[in-house]
Design a protein that fits this description.
It contains 6 helices and 14 strands. The protein is α+β, with helices and mostly antiparallel strands and 238 residues long. It is globular and about 50 Å long.
């Protein structure tokens, strides 16, 4: 597997096809029989499954065999080398016709993230990390300089932040961790609260937030399973 500019360009082209054929035509236009509720009370659609299977097939074809994915493939294989897939991060937004969804990918090797991808299928914007750098549509970008704290705290966040910040601008969560990270990349959100995360949304998000120089209540920022289900806060140090 060669990870270079051509690799990311090819993945972007494939994701664009997925967006044009499935996500954009169906967002907000699903029938009741295309939506179900999982055991954790989260929603899943038949298109989450279709897209996940297509992505697994694609990444298998280019050499990624050990894949941890959200729908029907989520056994956490404790291996040192694996790809994670979240086919539609923000499924409730997808159901309700809210244009805040993302495809999220990460490739983890020996508790480090080799690369991560967050793709906005509605705007066709492809963000990725590689070699400790963030790229937007394949052009290197720099971390934002924040002048004030912006984001959504919740009760746990307010307790954690009580001695760190005295004021902040409240901005509700988008119901998509991936889209919240996009807003952090773009300077529209300076902290995120992540409650009950899963490997397929936490690890891609963490890859970007590390490179944005966000602080966290985590004891470390290694990509290992110990962080799952924790109440996590990432924030810009202003």
């Amino acid at each position: 597997m060669i990870i270079d500019k051509n690799f990311f360009s090819d993945v972007h082209s494939y994701f664009r096809i997925i967006a044009e054929k499935i996500i954009i035509p169906k967002i907000g236009k699903l029938n009741e029989n295309e939506i179900s509720t999982k055991s954790d009370n989260s929603k899943v659609t038949s298109y989450d499954v279709v897209i996940e299977n297509e992505l697994i097939k694609y990444f298998n074809s280019i050499g990624y065999k050990n894949i941890i994915s959200e729908e029907g493939n989520s056994k956490l294989i404790r291996d040192s080398d694996y790809l994670t897939i979240d086919p539609i991060d923000g499924t409730r937004n997808f159901i309700n016709g809210i244009n805040k969804v993302a495809i999220m990918i990460s490739y983890i090797k020996n508790t480090e993230c080799e690369f991560a991808i967050i793709y906005d299928p509605i705007a066709d914007i492809f963000y990725h990390t590689f070699n400790k750098t963030i790229f937007k549509n394949h052009k290197q970008i720099k971390a934002q300089n924040y002048s004030n704290q912006v984001g959504f705290l919740g009760d746990h966040g307010k307790v954690y932040f009580k001695d760190i910040i005295s004021s902040y601008e409240e901005k509700i969560r988008s119901r998509s961790i991936g889209y919240d990270v996009i807003e952090a990349i773009e300077g529209k959100r300076s902290f995120l609260t992540v409650y009950g995360s899963k490997i397929w949304d936490l690890f891609p998000a963490m890859s970007f937030l590390k490179l944005l120089n966000f602080d966290t209540n985590l004891p470390d920022m290694e990509f290992n399973y110990s962080k799952l289900e924790k109440k996590i806060i990432f924030y810009a140090n202003i």
